[in-house]
Every structure is written in structure tokens, then in C-alpha cells.
Amino acid sequence: HRSYGHVTEDCVHLKDAIEILIQKGYARKYVKDGEKATHEAQIAIEAPTPEEEDNRAPMPTAYAISRLEDFLPPPDADEEGIM
Predict the structure, then answer these.
(1) Per-chain mean pLDDT for the chain
(2) Cα dihedral 29, 30, 32, 35 sign
(3) Residue 5 Ramachandran class (φ > 0 left, ψ -120 to 50 alpha, else beta)
(4) Is the distance from CB of 71 to CB of 27 less than 8 angstroms?
(5) Residue 47: CB atoms within 10 Å
(6) How far apart are CA 63 and CA 10, in angstroms?
(7) How far apart are CA 8 and CA 17, in angstroms?
(8) Range 55-64 average pLDDT
(9) What pTM was computed for the model?
């Protein structure tokens, strides 16, 4: 990762992949019991009112295409070989 200008700790794609593995149950032994809350439960965001929505400035959009299967280990991989 350093050769691409960022460190592993800052890699959003890696964090997303790890989150998916945790949610699918592939990395249970690496997660503490108190940290099993889903991403949705950790973030509470209020929806904007119609007035706020009308007054929002257009924001640039970043597009990314990924497939869930790109983040999952092969079906024949055992849990020891994942991480």
C-alpha cells in the first residue's frame, strides 16, 4: 500500500472488506463480543428535511464498482487461511 501513497490503516477498501468478512461470520474469532454491533447500529444519521434537501449544494460524486465476491475468500478456504 505504501507504494500507492497510503498506508493500510487508511485503506477504505480494506476496511470495507474486513467489515464484510466480519458480518458474514468469517472473522468471528478476531472480533470482541462488545464490538459485534453492525455498521448501521453504530451510525445514526437524521434524514434532511425537504427544505434542507432543496438548499444543498451539488456535491461531486465518486463512483466505485465492486462485487461482494471480490471480498470473500474462496469457498474451499478454511478459516485459518483467511487472515
Answers:
(1) 68
(2) negative
(3) left
(4) no
(5) 7
(6) 19
(7) 12
(8) 69
(9) 0.33
- Alpha-carbon distance of 66 to 72, in angstroms, equals 12
SS3 string, the chain, reads CHHHCCCHHHCHHHHHHHHHHHHHCCCHHHCCHHHCCCHHHHCCCCCCCHHHHHHCCCCCCCCCCCCHHHHCCCCCCCHHHCC
What cell does 30 get? 478476531
- Quick check: 15 and 24 in contact, CB under 8 A? no
Buried b (16+ CB within 10 A) or exposed e, 7-19: eeeeeeeeeebbe
Number of other residues whose CB lies within 10 A of the CB of residue 65: 5
Asked if residue 39 has pLDDT above 60, the reply is no
- The x, y and z cell numbers of residue 25, run together, are 461470520
